[in-house]
Amino acid sequence: MSWLLEKINGGLVRVFLIVVALFWLVPTIGLLASSLRSPEDMSANGWWHVFAKPSQLTFDSYQKLLENSDITNSLWNTVLITVPATVLVVIVGALAGYAFAWLEFRGRDWWFLIVVSLLVVPVQVALIPIAELFGKIGLFGTVFGVVLFHVGFGLPFAVFLLRNFFAEIPRELLEAARLDGAGELRVFTRVVMPLGGPAIASLGIFQFLWVWNDMLVALVFTKSSTQPITVALQTQVRQFGNNVDVLAPGAFISMVIPLAVFFAFQRQFVSGVMAGAVK
Fold this sequence. Notes:
By secondary structure, the protein is mainly alpha-helical. 30% of the residues are buried. The C terminus is likely disordered.
């Protein structure tokens, strides 16, 4: 009797989770359906009518989106900002994390404490001072300036995460590599990096999603020629309030790309989270 109750309870929990997942996906499904409808259909009735009339589906909005230079340029700017900001945070964070975990140098613990303390500094506090600094050195309004800002604020968390993960690597592995004549760089690339793959993948996903979806920093530090997709969509809403045939596909593309990145690396992400939980 107990096994039957457990099976029923397990089935009810599974059904409940499926229902919650479907409700969670409703906005995404609605945005996708809206992006595949004409402006006339969207103004006439709700997006759910597409299930009763599949003939409404069309890719004309996406074609119009590709003809909108503001959106396409902003999408390319988003890539130019997100990819370097993610790669630099991962590389520099991994090097610093290894140094704080396994290298002996004066004041190591104090330096690490300073890095960790930077986690509590909110982004909003630094916007105006850094904007003034970038204006004086000619970086304000440039893609490089936005990348530099994201790297600076992403590194404290990256160093904290990777240092704690690297510190759990067995010392015997590193000592064996050093006995074989490997230097610190070879130990880092051949031993530490492969073992730290799950944590590095988790960090990369977090950083990518944060930078891709950012609007506050981009709104302050970019201009019309360097603005990412988030600011471009907000500008479209402000200037062309009824331009839904561009906003809907643009918003969906802006959302589906980070989702694709997450699902592409979800196995490494889950491994990193589970490893951190166990350790």
